[in-house]
Amino acid sequence: MKRLLLLTVLMSFPIFAEVNSWECRKFEGATIIASDGTSLGELGPKWESDSIFNDSSEHSTTWSSNSIFNSSNDYGNSYSSDSVFNASASTPPRIISEEGKEIGKLSIGPSWDSTRYDPNDIKYTCDWD
Fold first, then answer.
1. With b meaning 16 or more CB within 10 Å and e meaning fewer, what string describes 87-111?
2. Is 5 within a domain?
């Protein structure tokens, strides 16, 4: 009975990759790389030329083949296994630091996967909008 109670208590606390403001530095300048090796831009403030949050960048448009915001391609639709916006994608884009190390995956879910980071969470937590 004690084990069941402990398990119930532990399961009530969500485990997910929430971005904290002090972590923004690790994301700044990180490159987003699709599973096929395609560069999908960078994470960083909207004034950076290759930032996915820069409205003038090809990586932020809804028409570019290299944009996660293009719902007609594999990186931005809701059903592709390579998409940021498919919570159950098996191969979402990787976030690679400026030092070349993988930080995690750029993905809206699943919420229990602590290696996945939601682009909207990064954008608003880091004040890059």
1. bebeebbbbbeeeeeebbbbbbbee
2. no
**Is position 3 within any domain?**
no
Yes or no: say if 104 and 113 are a contact pair by the CB < 8 Å rule. no
Alpha-carbon distance of 21 to 34, in angstroms, equals: 25
User: For 71-107, how does the pLDDT look when each residue is reduced to its tens digit (9 = 90+)?
Assistant: 999 999 999 999 999 999 999 999 999 999 999 999 9
Q: What is the pLDDT of residues 8-30, one digit of tens each?
A: 444 444 444 677 878 899 999 99
In a domain, 99, yes or no: yes
The separation between the first and the last C-alpha atoms of the chain, rounded to the nearest angstrom, is: 49
pTM, 2 dp: 0.84
Structural domain harbouring 23: 19-125
CB 27 within 8 A of CB 14: no
Average pLDDT over residues 61-65: 96
Please count the other Cβ atoms lying within 10 Å of the Cβ belonging to residue 39: 14
